[in-house]
Amino acid sequence: xxxxxxxxxxxxxxxxxxxxxxxxxxxxxxxxxxxxxxxxxxxxxxxxxxxxxxxxxxxxxxxxxxxxxxxxxxxxxxxxxxxxxxxxxxxxxxxxxxxxxxxxxxxxxxxxxxxxxxxxxxxxx
Length: 125
Fold this sequence. Notes:
This protein has 125 residues and is mainly alpha-helical.
């Protein structure tokens, strides 16, 4: 957002901004506004915040999955995100898995990793 651009006051407009630029704009807006914001200043902060939260809710599960594929333990992911392990599982699975289902899937993946990629193919024949 340049000095001449007005910040968006609607979610649809804020969501069109590059996400990292929206973070920068949100920071600049929040730190540069008066203690008693005007209507448009308050709406701009809400619109930018909502756009960042929407992006984050789509991005975090992808990064949790990426960390898991890189061999990161759930406890390390929980520590990195500030979440407990159950919430990491919930967010990482898009809310579709419980800890029990996750444990079963994780065990199956571990067995396949140890067996190698061709082991599963030979069992299927």
